[in-house]
């Protein structure tokens, strides 16, 4: 009996689940767990420390339009590899900082890497690799990210209480980098043609595509450009709003968990 091979699109999805899941749960969403011990150890106000979260959000806002252009121009595998080095590396370096200015400076590469890992990398690659089942793939990606968060945040919290916030920063950042970077290099590919295949669910014939391209007439360039810009800005605004809401919720939830743990210990 002929045995069907697993389409490479599903391996792409596995790689994205690990990268996006750990990038969100272990790095972004755990930031609130560190605020109280860091502020206390450095003898700074919580408000002064959390400014780095605002800087990170602003950098994300400004860099999002350029992120899409970079992913469309360069190899997604290389871009995501560099992105996880920036994001996880910056997170790890928080552990050696002695001034709040270190958080302010490192929040910039942290946010730039996070744009690709946690915001646009997954949707763009799913769009390229899935002709059908895009909604299912996005749902799996979101679900795995939430599932990893269930385990990641308690582990990070335990590291902080057991070894201190400096060691916890280093272990978490370097651990995510060691896990995610090789997976990106092994599983992520730019387009289906890079693996001599088609997108998952694409049953079209090349000859039919050529015939359709010859028959279909174009539209005026100015109309197409106007429609494209309008659609892009609508999508960008919606994506940004969703990202900001999720980021704020995750940070406040993490901070609330820390306060409850401190009260229980006392």
TrEMBL record:
Bilayer topology: Multi-pass membrane protein
One Gene Ontology cellular component annotation held by this UniProt entry: plasma membrane
Compartments reported by the entry: Cell membrane
Domain Major facilitator superfamily (MFS) profile: 9-266
Record InterPro entries: MFS (IPR011701), MFS_dom (IPR020846), MFS_trans_sf (IPR036259), MFS_Transporters (IPR050171)
Membrane-crossing residue ranges in chain numbering: 47-66, 78-97, 103-126, 138-161, 167-188
Principal localisation: membrane
Keyword presence, Membrane: yes
Pfam families listed in its UniProt record: MFS_1 (PF07690)
PROSITE patterns noted in UniProt: MFS (PS50850)
Domain of life: Bacteria
MF-aspect GO terms: transmembrane transporter activity
Assigned keywords, A-Z: Cell membrane, Membrane, Transmembrane, Transmembrane helix, Transport
Protein name per UniProt: MFS transporter
Source species: Mammaliicoccus lentus (Staphylococcus lentus)
């Amino acid at each position: 009996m002929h045995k069907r091979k697993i389409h490479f699109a599903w391996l792409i999805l596995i790689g994205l689940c690990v990268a996006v899941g750990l990038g969100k749960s272990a790095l972004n969403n755990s930031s609130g767990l560190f605020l109280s011990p860091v502020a206390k150890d450095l003898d700074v106000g919580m408000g002064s420390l959390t400014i780095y979260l605002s800087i990170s959000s602003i950098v994300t806002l400004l860099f999002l339009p350029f992120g899409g252009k970079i992913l469309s121009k360069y190899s997604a595998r290389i871009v995501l590899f560099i992105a996880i080095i920036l994001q996880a590396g910056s997170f790890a370096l928080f552990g050696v900082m002695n001034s709040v200015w270190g958080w302010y400076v490192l929040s910039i590469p942290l946010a730039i890497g996070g744009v690709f890992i946690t915001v646009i990398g997954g949707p763009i690659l799913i769009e390229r690799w899935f002709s059908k089942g895009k909604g299912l793939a996005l749902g799996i990606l979101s679900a795995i990210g939430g599932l990893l968060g269930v385990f990641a945040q308690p582990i990070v919290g335990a590291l902080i209480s057991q070894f201190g916030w400096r060691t916890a920063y280093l272990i978490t950042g370097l651990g995510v980098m060691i896990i995610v970077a090789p997976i990106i290099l092994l599983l992520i590919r730019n387009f289906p043609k890079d693996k001599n295949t088609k997108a998952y669910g694409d049953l079209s014939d090349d000859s039919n595509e050529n015939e359709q391209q010859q028959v279909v007439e174009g539209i005026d360039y100015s109309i197409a450009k106007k429609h494209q810009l309008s659609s892009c800005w609508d999508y960008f605004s919606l994506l940004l709003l969703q990202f900001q809401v999720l980021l704020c919720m995750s940070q406040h939830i993490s901070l609330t968990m820390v306060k409850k743990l401190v009260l229980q210990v006392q």
